[in-house]
């Protein structure tokens, strides 16, 4: 391990969300989830072996203090791979999406770091093993190892060796995602502590795994039949159900800003006028719109700053 290596991994947007862990050390989920990877939006991570005795972590061109939370998380993650105790790295991650605004940048970051470590340490691990490793950095990262539609099979094993991403074979040309940025600032409560709080304090959470299982089936059907309405409805209801459990936590977890609600209402209004547009949201105030290519121009009139991605091209 002497030369520097660089890898890219895409961000991913869950259509059926991962919310709640059955094992917090290994990031094993309570429910299976399904996402779509964002093509060119994600993280580039470079690893350069250093002479130092600590990892030197950089994020978007800024050096982090070794004690910083993210820096420690990265270093502990590298420890999982580090066989030679004296091998440390300069780790440079660049996201081309806003960090920590609920745009799943930790997912692409840990996926890219996993791929880079696989190269740097010549591990030669197969994709499913890489997905398992990435999951230990951040649960949703296990889906960012793949492109297109990805299912995270929750698995049953205690050691987590059956809990990883699996790429679906179906493609969907013309399927679009639009990012509505409400607030690019750091979120107040990260997913990790947010889900723990929900699991421990929200009675509503009991129904979440049941709903997620039903939604996963509907999404698989929607993707197989290219039924956009079924996909959109299922994804939007799934996201709102997750948020309902968050809001029912104590202390309450409300990731929405007034502008988030205004954007939701705009989507509902456009839909009442016949436009096929739906949204999903993660642990942050931003909306991700789901629509089809033919409606892109119309949608841009209503959301002028929309950043759009076509995961399968056109
Ligand atoms: C709302 O994967 O960020 O985006 O495993 O604690 O790192 P950790 O959580 P993380 O949670 C993502 C939650 C979500 C839904 C999803 O992407 O499935």
Automatic annotation (TrEMBL):
<keyword id="KW-0443">Lipid metabolism</keyword>
<keyword id="KW-0067">ATP-binding</keyword>
<dbReference type="InterPro" id="IPR036554">
    <property type="entry name" value="GHMP_kinase_C_sf"/>
</dbReference>
<dbReference type="InterPro" id="IPR053859">
    <property type="entry name" value="MVD-like_N"/>
</dbReference>
<dbReference type="InterPro" id="IPR014721">
    <property type="entry name" value="Ribsml_uS5_D2-typ_fold_subgr"/>
</dbReference>
<keyword id="KW-0456">Lyase</keyword>
<dbReference type="GO" id="GO:0004163">
    <property type="term" value="F:diphosphomevalonate decarboxylase activity"/>
</dbReference>
<dbReference type="GO" id="GO:0019287">
    <property type="term" value="P:isopentenyl diphosphate biosynthetic process, mevalonate pathway"/>
</dbReference>
<dbReference type="InterPro" id="IPR029765">
    <property type="entry name" value="Mev_diP_decarb"/>
</dbReference>
<feature type="domain" description="Mvd1 C-terminal">
    <location>
        <begin position="183"/>
        <end position="303"/>
    </location>
</feature>
<dbReference type="Pfam" id="PF18376">
    <property type="entry name" value="MDD_C"/>
</dbReference>
<dbReference type="Pfam" id="PF22700">
    <property type="entry name" value="MVD-like_N"/>
</dbReference>
<dbReference type="GO" id="GO:0005524">
    <property type="term" value="F:ATP binding"/>
</dbReference>
<protein>
    <recommendedName>
        <fullName>diphosphomevalonate decarboxylase</fullName>
        <ecNumber>4.1.1.33</ecNumber>
    </recommendedName>
</protein>
<keyword id="KW-0547">Nucleotide-binding</keyword>
<keyword id="KW-0444">Lipid biosynthesis</keyword>
<comment type="similarity">
    <text>Belongs to the diphosphomevalonate decarboxylase family.</text>
</comment>
<dbReference type="InterPro" id="IPR041431">
    <property type="entry name" value="Mvd1_C"/>
</dbReference>
<dbReference type="GO" id="GO:0005829">
    <property type="term" value="C:cytosol"/>
</dbReference>
<dbReference type="InterPro" id="IPR005935">
    <property type="entry name" value="Mev_decarb"/>
</dbReference>
<feature type="domain" description="Diphosphomevalonate decarboxylase-like N-terminal">
    <location>
        <begin position="9"/>
        <end position="161"/>
    </location>
</feature>
<dbReference type="InterPro" id="IPR020568">
    <property type="entry name" value="Ribosomal_Su5_D2-typ_SF"/>
</dbReference>
């Amino acid at each position: 391990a002497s030369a520097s290596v660089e890898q890219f991994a895409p961000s991913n947007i869950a259509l059926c969300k991962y919310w709640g862990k059955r094992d917090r050390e290994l990031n094993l989920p309570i429910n299976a989830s399904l996402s779509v990877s964002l093509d060119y939006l994600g993280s580039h991570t470079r690893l350069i072996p250093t002479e130092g005795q600590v990892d030197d972590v950089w994020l978007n061109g800024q050096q982090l203090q070794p004690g910083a939370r993210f820096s420690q998380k990265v270093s502990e993650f590298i420890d999982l791979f580090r066989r030679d105790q004296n091998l440390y790295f300069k780790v440079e991650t660049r996201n081309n999406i806003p960090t920590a605004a609920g745009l799943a940048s930790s997912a692409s970051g840990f996926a890219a770091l996993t791929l880079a470590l696989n190269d740097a340490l010549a591990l030669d691990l197969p994709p499913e093993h890489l997905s398992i490793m990435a999951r230990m950095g951040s649960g949703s990262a296990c889906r960012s190892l793949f492109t297109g539609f990805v299912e995270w099979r929750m698995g049953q094993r205690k050691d987590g060796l059956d809990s990883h991403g699996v790429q679906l074979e179906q493609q969907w040309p013309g399927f679009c995602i639009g990012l509505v940025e409400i607030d690019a600032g750091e979120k107040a409560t990260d997913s990790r502590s947010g889900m723990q709080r929900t699991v421990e304090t929200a009675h509503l959470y009991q129904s979440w795994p049941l709903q997620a299982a039903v939604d996963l089936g509907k999404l698989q059907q929607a993707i197989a039949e290219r039924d956009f309405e079924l996909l959109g409805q299922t994804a939007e209801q799934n996201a709102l159900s997750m948020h309902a459990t968050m809001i029912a936590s104590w202390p309450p977890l409300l990731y929405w800003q007034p502008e988030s609600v205004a954007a939701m209402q705009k989507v509902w209004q456009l839909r009442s006028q016949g436009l096929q547009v739906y949204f999903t949201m993660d642990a942050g105030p931003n909306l991700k719109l789901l629509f089809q290519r033919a409606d892109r121009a119309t949608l841009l009139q209503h959301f002028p700053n929309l950043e759009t991605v076509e995961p399968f091209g056109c």
